[in-house]
């Protein structure tokens, strides 16, 4: 009787497992199709911009380097876990992967935020301030800030509360396999703090800076058109 019940339970779960397997394979294929062209495009643009020393291109090159680093390090591990449906490496690799992955994403957001603010200086700033932006420290300090802040934050956060989630293996009853995940997201307070300072604040600053830049450009253009009209 128990044998029949266990057999029926396995039969009931089989369609769900098959659906999850197909879904993971589809997502894996999409990840490959997106990652490979992205990698090629990223490398091609970096090669083209390698000899460009303009200050306006510097931040863009930094963004491309971080994006390339993510594609070469984080994406393959994600695709491996997606294909196998479990994390095949030790917990230390799980922690390192999560730290690099989360830090890189936030670093990209901070670099975009920095670029949106820097455009005001490069377009409307005084000449001496624009010249000072070409100095090495004005290039390195924002870049180090964008890397060090998220790296320190997620190192403390992930090393403290990272865990493996045990999931049952679909092939055997007693065996279980692990999924790498950051457990701090289950803490509402930590999750809100992380979301606000790593996502909401950079996006809000970027939006406000870009919006104000468009307004300043529109006002400047309007004044120039008025001055030209008065001259003629």
From TrEMBL:
Domain G-protein coupled receptors family 1 profile per the UniProt entry, residue ranges: 38-232
Query: Has the keyword Transmembrane been applied to this entry?
Result: yes
Question: Does this UniProt record's set of keywords contain Transit peptide?
Answer: no
Q: Tell me the leader sequence span.
A: none
Q: In which compartments does the protein localize?
A: Membrane
**Keyword set for this entry?**
Membrane, Transmembrane, Transmembrane helix
Single GO molecular function: G protein-coupled receptor activity
Q: What is its main location?
A: membrane
- GO cellular-component terms in the record? membrane
Determine the domain of life of the protein's source: Eukaryota
**For this UniProt entry, which segments traverse the membrane?**
26-46, 58-80, 86-117, 138-161, 188-215
Tell me what this protein is called: G-protein coupled receptors family 1 profile domain-containing protein
